[in-house]
Design goal:
500 residues
Length: 500
């Protein structure tokens, strides 16, 4: 039988206890994986094991798929009306509110983000997202099309069926809510795979899903590795859709697997190398504060991170001086400390990857203006890092680092910066800072990115769509747009008087 994880939090910022089953969640029950194996979950602040969780296998994917199809055919899907789906999602949001501090603490322990950010952003936004889609559940409808008076023609937006959802480690609870919300609101059954690095909040959430009253099989959770469970989900002949958030490299593999098997519907929210453009008429102090948030939020582990900071030559020196001062002021430390802004990177592998990019920048001739080194001797902490004197062909300019590493690039005029900003295979997000609204909007419209922020960055809302251009993805998360990812449109034509 799957084990119980119990942890007592006794920190300056939060005191409390959590206790929950660490098994797979299949057909409304917590169970061991078929092979009875487990995965060690590491605390990134210390590098030590927190607990073990059950490891799923491809056989468990088959079991979960069978449970999901049974639920879809009997208790969920078209068998549960929109009002019922709305009620259950609303109850789930209320349960999340009741356990918000506990969820934030688990997230900080497992992921390394600060408890403050987990409370103020991750858990709050996750609750808002589930509640937002609770409001949509009874508003999924088609249209009536006028043809002629002897025919009734209309469309139905029906749930696709059983969907696989694979979420990343950088925002575990938040990404779970982005995926579950629209899928459940439209009546789909879900098989969700969290990252093997950060599965704890997703597992805890399944107990809340159960308590909310979702029928067995409507939501299933499989903790496992990408090359086994993720691959099995992507290629499974009885999974009708896959939604994935993660790297562009893995997104390609999922797209290939979907194409080679049952040509399943896919949505992909992938990597980014977002430009943050600061014109010489910007409010420099505000631009500095937002730029720091843009690159250092979540320790730089955000697909929308404003990692390429373009500053017009007239204010370049002033901006760099103030941005350096701001970066130095950010406290890197214990996620449960009152004054910590940035915790550790999520894992040793990610720490090594970031340090490899920092070394690459040095080797290719860029200047380490600030940071570029480890913080402390325990855990996976990296100091905020600024590179200058870069060239467009450098890896640190072209590739997604996914860490607290930004490059500050001088530009001369509007055409120059548009060319440089769009010189990337990615197109997820962008930002423009200018007090000239015409200039700001003109620039925003010319940027090849799915989101363009003006005089702000990394601002996300449950009702505003998010997704990428180019190799940053297919489809949109959030808002009404996300609902389209989870429905199939059926046309119905009824003969009222045509005679053959």
């Amino acid at each position: 039988m799957a084990s119980i994880f119990t942890h007592e939090f006794n920190t300056p910022i939060y005191k409390g206890k959590t206790s929950f089953n660490t098994g797979l969640y299949i057909d409304g029950k917590f169970v061991d994986g078929s092979d009875k194996t487990t995965i060690d979950i590491i605390n990134p602040a210390t590098g030590k094991v927190i607990t073990k969780v059950a490891e799923a296998t491809p056989k468990d994917v088959d079991i979960a798929v069978a449970a999901a199809h049974k639920a879809f055919d009997t208790t969920w899907g078209l068998n549960a009306g929109g009002a019922e789906r709305s009620r259950l999602l609303g109850k789930l949001a209320r349960l999340m509110e009741e356990h918000q501090q506990e969820l934030a603490a688990i997230e900080a322990l497992d992921n390394g983000k600060t408890f403050t950010w987990a409370m103020d952003v991750d858990t709050t936004f996750a609750i808002d997202t589930i509640r937002y889609y609770a409001g949509w559940a009874d508003k999924i409808h088609g249209q009536v099309q006028e043809t002629d008076e002897r025919k009734l023609s209309y469309t139905r937006h029906e749930p696709i069926g059983v969907v696989g959802q694979i979420i990343p480690w950088n925002f575990p609870l938040l990404m779970m809510s982005w995926k579950l919300g629209p899928a459940l609101a439209t009546g789909n059954c879900v098989i969700l795979k969290p990252s093997e690095f950060t599965p704890l909040t997703a597992i805890r959430m399944c107990a809340l899903v159960h308590e909310a009253g979702f029928p067995p099989g409507a939501v299933n959770l499989l903790t496992g590795y990408g090359n086994t469970v993720g691959s099995a989900i992507s290629s499974h002949m009885k999974i009708d859709k896959v939604a994935f958030t993660g790297s562009t490299l893995v997104g390609r593999k999922i797209m290939e697997a979907a194409a080679k098997t049952n040509l399943k519907n896919i949505t992909l929210e992938l990597g980014g190398k977002s430009p943050n453009i600061i014109f010489d008429d910007a409010d420099v102090d505000q631009a500095v504060n937002w730029a720091a948030h843009g690159i250092y939020w979540n320790h730089g582990q955000a697909c929308s991170a404003g990692s390429r900071i373009f500053v017009q030559s007239g204010i370049y020196d002033e901006f760099l001086e103030k941005f350096t001062e701001k970066s130095r002021s950010l406290k890197v430390g214990d996620p449960f400390a009152l004054d910590s802004f940035q915790g550790p990177q999520v894992s040793k592998a990610q720490y090594d990857r970031i340090m490899g990019y920092i070394q690459s920048g040095k080797d290719q001739g860029a200047t380490v203006h600030l940071g570029g080194d480890r913080n402390g001797t325990e855990g996976y902490y990296i100091n905020p890092t600024i590179f200058t004197d870069t060239t467009p062909d450098m890896k640190i300019v072209q590739e997604e680092i996914f860490g607290p590493v930004g490059v500050v690039i001088k530009f001369e005029d509007d055409e120059d910066v548009i060319r440089q900003a769009n010189d990337t295979v990615f197109g997820l997000a962008s930002a423009v800072f200018s007090q000239n609204i015409t200039r700001a909007l003109t620039t925003a419209h010319r940027l090849k990115a799915g989101t363009a922020w003006v005089n702000c960055v990394n601002q996300l809302h449950a009702n505003v769509p998010f997704g990428g251009f180019k190799q940053s993805g297919i489809g949109r998360e959030l808002g009404e747009y996300a609902l389209h990812n989870y429905t199939a449109v059926k046309s119905v034509q009824v003969n009222l008087g045509h005679v053959m």
